[in-house]
Structures are given as structure tokens and as C-alpha cells.
Protein 1
Amino acid sequence: MDQMVIGSQVYPYTVQTQHSHCIIMNQIDGSSSLSGEGSKPVVKRRRKRRSKDSSATNDDDVAGIMLRKRKLTDEQVNMLEYSFGNERKLESGRKEKIAGELGLDPRQVAVWFQNRRARWKTKKIEEEYAKLKSQHDTVVLGQCQLESQVLELTEQLSQAQNEIRKLSERLEGMSTNSPSSSLSIEVNDAPIDFEFVPETNYNIPFYMEYWDGLYV
DNA sequence: TTGTGTTTTACGACCTCC
DNA sequence: GGAGGTCGTAAAACACAA
């Protein structure tokens, strides 16, 4: 059993001490954290913090030292973790039961669950963030690939436009008075057939230029 | 040993639900 | 209105590098 020496007094440092510590705490505070001020105006009152001074001798300071928070034992934490794994919320009866089994104040059990839920929530948020980041990175990568393809296709399109313009100019030079409804030319030894389809809606600029070139 | 960063315990303020 | 929740934070406990 650990001991805490305060002045001439030796205080046992055990689970029971932790239990007592909470009772003292509530008495000293003269308040419960669950007092619930409802919708009163927000008045942030800084609570008194416990002193770090261990050389104190008067009753209040001794109590303050007794109030020092104590780490829960591994066994207590394991039991609390197990309980938390079964159910993250803590109804009154269960809290009393756990507190009794572990020799803790019910308030300690409630606080532990509150903090545990907060840690769990933080972890969940971090996991969700990592998942979303991964998805985002995947989308960004896909976007880069698509942009690269767009550049490549734009370049190809530009080259094709140039080819067509050159051919158009050549055809213009060879043009006769009677327009033909179709014509056939070769580009790079590959035959390309053009067919005039008046009802087709060509709204791509270079096609319009091409037709304009043919039928000026 | 000591300075510093992180984790754990505890609390005050406020919110929600019954 | 009370019980129990979240949120933000203080302070003790702990880990660890320098």
C-alpha cells in the first residue's frame, strides 16, 4: 500500500483513499458538477484549482492534497474498458454496480465514462478524417489523370485542325463551280470520306470553319 | 535533473430529455 | 427541475529527450 505523508500524518494511498477523496471533494466544492444552470446567461466562472503545494498543514490544504487525482489501477481500468465495450452509456444502476465492484465513487465512474466517450469520439473523428482524406487523394489523382488526358487530346485536336485547314486550303485551290455533295481525300495515305448532311447540327467551331471553307 | 509534450482524471458550464 | 450528456480546460501523472 502506498502512503502519503502530510506533516506528521501518514495517509494511506489506496483505492479507498480515492473513494474518500471524491467525497471530500464534493464537500469542499459545496457543489455538484451536475447542478445544471440550464439556460441562464453564460457566466464563465473559473473554478478554484487544487494547489500543488504539498507542504501545507491546515485542514483545507490537507484535504486539497487528498483531492489530488489518482490514477486508476490497471485492473480498474480494464474492468471499465470491458464495461465500456459492452455499452458506452451509463445508466444509474449500472454506474452504482460498477463503482461498487471497483471500489470507486460512482462519480469517478461517471467521469471515467465521460472521458472515455470523448476519447472514443476523437478517435472516430480521426478515423473518419483519414478515410475522407484517402478518398480525396484518390479523386485528386483521378482528376490529374483526366487533366493530362485533356491536354493530350487537345494537342491531338489542334494537330487535326491544322491538317484539316491545310487540306481545306488545298481543296479551295482545286475547287470547281459546282459544289459536290460528297468528296474523298487522303490524309497520310488513309482515305477520309466527307459526306454533306445538311440537317446535322455541327456546333463545333472547327467543323464550321471547315464547311465554310468548302462552301464560300 | 529538468524542461517539455502527452495522457489521464476531474470539474464547471451548459444542453437535452423525461 | 433533476439526471446525465457534451465540451473545454485545469492540473496531476507520466514519458522521454537533452
Protein 2
Amino acid sequence: MEPAHWPSEHSDALRDYFLKGLSYAEIGRQINARFGTAYTRNAVVGRAKRLGLIVQVRMTSPSIVPVLPSGACLILPHRPALLNLPPKSAMKPAAQVKLRCVGVQPRLVPLVELAAEDCRYPYGGDKDGEEITFCGHPSEPGSSYCTPHARLTRRAGAGSARVAGPVVLRLVSAA
DNA sequence: CCCTGATTCGC
DNA sequence: GCGAATCAGG
């Protein structure tokens, strides 16, 4: 990794997605797809936190209430009904966020030319006003995506990449 | 089992 | 500051 620091574009995208309500994993995948990076969701979370997007609730155990005035009780005098920032929970607008970027070359088929068996994997949804095209690769039966995209929707790296594991410590009982 | 969120810790 | 490892919940 050359850039030890997040480019502003990445941070901007992160903030955008974050405020949009996407999950960290999705944000990470989106950013990775768009910029060709390899941020893990951990990285996204960590970055988001450091960036100040994440609400840090400082709840230390002891003495949550520093002072307890005999008469004055500050029991939430104000009730801000709605906050500017959407709560990290209770929101699922982007149910199925499409992903992109895989080792595949999308045919970028326009919607009008998209066949029934073509992988409906959106490309170009990054920028507003940009034409959205689709992967167009033959999709798996029963799925709307081609193999790589279908699996991209799921987990990454796994699948046929179970190598590089923690070795197979094999005891050679040579004698 | 899979997923995600959030924190901690070493680099 | 960065991100992997790790823990915790669904």
C-alpha cells in the first residue's frame, strides 16, 4: 500500500455512503469497487470512527453523573426528537446494494439491450446522471448475476481460495 | 453457518 | 493514523 493516508475521494465516498445508511461492509465493497482499493470493513469502520462519523458514546462505568445536585436534577430536560444524523440502526434503505468490480470485464450492456439471462449487475451507478449499464455476462440459472458477481455479493476471497491457510501441520512419523 | 458492528492492539 | 485481529450480537 503506497498511500498510507486515505485520499479525500475515498473519505468523501465513505462519508457519502455512510450518511446514506450503507453498512460498513457495503461501504467498503463499494469503495473498493470504485477505486480498486482493498479496504476491509474493519478499515472502513476504523476510518469512519477516526473521521468522526461514528458516534462515540462515552459510557464509562463509574460516575456517569459527576455531580448529583440535591435539588437540581438534569433529567434530560430537552428531548431532541430527531437528530441530524441517522441512527446507526433502524434503517435499511438500500436493501440490496449492488456491487461491482470483479476480475470480470463487464459488457456494460444498456438496459435496453439487457437480455433476460444477462447478469444484472449495475455499472456506473457511481455518478449521478451517468448511464447505468450492466454486466451482461451470462447469469447463473436462478440468479440475476453471473458467477463472479453472484459470489461477490456474498463473501470475497473465499470460495475457491481456501489456500494459504494456516498450513497443514503434518506430523511425519518418519522412522 | 452466514452475516454485520464495534473495539482493541500492534505496526 | 492505519488496519488486522478480535470480540460480540443477529
